TrEMBL record:
<keyword id="KW-0472">Membrane</keyword>
<dbReference type="Pfam" id="PF04294">
    <property type="entry name" value="VanW"/>
</dbReference>
<dbReference type="Pfam" id="PF12229">
    <property type="entry name" value="PG_binding_4"/>
</dbReference>
<protein>
    <submittedName>
        <fullName>Vancomycin resistance protein YoaR, contains peptidoglycan-binding and VanW domains</fullName>
    </submittedName>
</protein>
<keyword id="KW-1133">Transmembrane helix</keyword>
<feature type="domain" description="YoaR-like putative peptidoglycan binding">
    <location>
        <begin position="233"/>
        <end position="343"/>
    </location>
</feature>
<feature type="region of interest" description="Disordered">
    <location>
        <begin position="1"/>
        <end position="37"/>
    </location>
</feature>
<dbReference type="InterPro" id="IPR022029">
    <property type="entry name" value="YoaR-like_PG-bd"/>
</dbReference>
<feature type="transmembrane region" description="Helical">
    <location>
        <begin position="41"/>
        <end position="63"/>
    </location>
</feature>
<keyword id="KW-0812">Transmembrane</keyword>
<dbReference type="InterPro" id="IPR007391">
    <property type="entry name" value="Vancomycin_resist_VanW"/>
</dbReference>
<dbReference type="InterPro" id="IPR052913">
    <property type="entry name" value="Glycopeptide_resist_protein"/>
</dbReference>
Length: 588
């Protein structure tokens, strides 16, 4: 019969031999079997206590700090460290690893790209790596934790695409286009190309291996399917151009014809191949521009004018227009309807693109330079009238900081329709009548005004022959469309051009804020002087007689003065041909 002691749980371990000098004798009151049971119970209890103590010691050892013992990252032991200590240890390890800063070799379809980790946001996420290490196996055996690598997928995709260029085959994007009023379905076709997420996963996985990274191409499919395109044709495109759309407003009614709807209805896909139907307000405005003019009032920008010889700002004025951007969703809904094709429009105030405050900020406050040249013949001559016509056209021209002014672009072709007349021009080295003759004198005057304002010369060409009404070297001709005069406003302020004239002179002034204290010119002596020859030409309307001019070469230096010193010098050189002495002789 068993005793209570015999029924207690025990831990069975291999029996150990007792020491030879230790003799255990059971008490007389106990039977031998009862003694043996108590002895087993005592040994088992001692063993459990000993084992528990041992395991507790192991646990204390293994769990010391936040990171389990035996944990490594990139071969560096971080076991037993706190999170902060582990993070510092990993960062020190990474700083000493050349792979973290060396350019990464990436291969795509046999094309190589070498990208710096910093340029694509490629880095080890130390905090995430420490989190993984802290969650590792807590007891025996080594545990290697892979570093958590992150990359900016957008930067990587852009840099890789720029480096390797077009690879794979482009996806045929779905679309619905119009041929007149007939919609045409463009079905998508899959392509092969770089996928930003696949590229990012491949690069992060292969970065610290030290081997070239092979990025695969993936098959790309449009989000919008061929069936979707066909449905868009029947549910959107065809109904849209079936009838006009009417826009009502307080200022009148606007009818949008089907052709205008076809121009403004956008059924093209984005980069993912998704078609989202929409009305393009800009295209719609262009398509019904003439009709809109009956409803809208254009805003008027603030401008400069001249009063008493000085610039004055004339405030702009608000306009009134239909807010087609806000109306676009309602217009799209109307385009898909068979009967509800009327949209209520809202007229909103349209502010000027340039207000008085914008002009005030430009710093057009003082006359920076002015230049005058003399012309013969009085205001009755065709040549003088051409000079004044150009001056009237250019007066008030505003050149914003960083912008380039082109005289040809500003005036357009100088033709009879603009009021220009025939006057002598140089063509192929000969003087002959031509429309706009004399505008070169205005060009020279404008060139010198901008020259002495210290503005950047972009394009000018002196005359073939030297005329003493101009300063040598620093003068300019012009001829549509081949010869132009251009300057750049390289100052931080606006540049406003003013012109004035008398019966014998033309003046151009530049208004802005001074950048240089003054601008002056130094000339070299003339050299390589040549005498004119005499050429006899048949008398007639194309023959203009001249007395001839010498030819020479000369230099001119533009000096920019600042704080009492010459801060910059700019050299101009020109070689003048001798103008022949043309004699108009009656034919034999």
């Amino acid at each position: 019969m068993s005793t209570a002691s015999d029924r207690q749980p025990t831990v069975r371990l291999p029996r150990q031999p007792l020491p030879t000098h230790d003799v255990i004798t059971p008490p007389p009151s106990e039977t031998p079997s009862a003694g043996r049971g108590r002895r087993r119970l005592l040994i088992g209890a001692l063993t459990v206590v000993t084992l528990a103590a041992g395991l507790g010691g192991v646990a204390v050892y293994a769990l010391h700090g936040d990171i389990p013992r035996g944990t490594t990252v990139l071969g560096t032991d971080v076991g037993g460290l706190t999170r902060a200590e582990a993070a510092d240890t990993i960062r020190t390890r990474l700083a000493a690893d050349p792979r973290t800063t060396t350019a990464v070799d990436i291969q795509v379809e046999g094309r190589g790209a070498t990208l710096r980790p910093a340029d694509i946001g490629l880095t080890v996420d130390v905090d995430a790596t420490v989190d993984n290490a802290a969650a590792g196996r807590p007891f025996f055996g080594g545990h290697a934790v892979a570093p958590v690598v992150s990359v900016d997928a957008g930067l990587l995709d852009a840099a890789l695409t720029e480096a390797v260029g077009d690879v794979g085959t482009a996806m045929t994007a779905p679309a619905v286009t119009f041929s007149g009023l007939t919609p045409k379905a463009v079905h998508p076709e899959p392509g092969r190309g770089l996928d930003p997420q696949t590229t990012a996963d491949t690069v992060t996985a292969g970065w610290l291996t030290g081997a070239p990274i092979i990025v695969p191409l993936v098959e790309t499919h449009a989000v919008t399917t061929a069936a979707d395109v066909d449905r868009l044709v029947t549910t959107v495109a065809e109904p849209a151009v079936a009838a006009p759309i009417t826009i009502t407003s307080d200022a009148g009614t606007l009818t949008v014809p089907p052709a205008a709807i076809a121009r403004s209805l956008v059924l093209t896909a984005d980069q993912t191949g998704l078609i989202t139907p929409r009305i393009d307000a800009g295209r719609l405005r262009a398509a019904v521009k003439t009709r809109l003019a009956k409803i809208e009032v254009a805003a008027r920008d603030a401008t400069f004018t001249f009063a008493s010889g000085k610039p004055r700002i004339v405030a702009g004025k608000d306009g009134r227009g239909l807010d087609l951007v806000a109306m676009a969703p309602a217009l799209l809904a109307a385009a898909q309807s068979s009967d509800a094709r009327t949209v209520q429009g809202t007229l909103t105030a349209a502010a000027p693109a340039t207000g008085a405050a914008d002009l005030q900020k430009l710093g057009v406050t003082e006359k920076v330079s002015t230049f005058t040249t003399k012309f013969p013949g009085g205001l009755s001559s065709s040549r003088s009238q051409n000079i004044i016509t150009a001056a009237k056209h250019v007066r008030g021209a505003l050149v914003l900081p960083g912008k380039t002014f082109s005289l040809n672009k500003f005036t357009g072709e100088r033709s009879y329709a603009q009021g220009y007349k025939d006057a002598p021009v140089i063509v192929g080295g000969h003087l002959q009548p031509g429309v706009g003759g004399g505008v070169s004198q205005f060009t020279t005057t404008l060139f010198n005004a901008t020259y002495y304002a210290g503005l950047q010369d972009v394009e000018h060409k002196p005359h073939s022959y030297y005329f003493d009404r101009y300063p040598a070297v620093i003068e300019s001709t012009i001829f549509w469309p081949d010869l132009d005069f251009r300057f750049k406003n390289d100052s931080p302020h606006g540049v406003l051009i003013d012109t004035a004239w008398t019966s014998s002179s033309i003046t151009v002034s530049v208004w802005s804020t001074k950048v240089w204290d003054k601008v002056t010119t130094e000339w070299s002596d003339r050299r390589n002087i040549t005498s004119p020859s005499t050429i006899t030409k048949p008398d007639g309307p194309n023959c203009i007689s001249t007395s001839g001019l010498i030819g020479f070469t000369q230099d001119a230096w533009r000096l920019f003065h600042k704080d009492g010193k010459v801060a910059k010098r700019e050299k101009f050189t020109w070689k003048y041909d001798p103008e022949p002495r043309f004699v108009c002789s009656p034919p034999d």
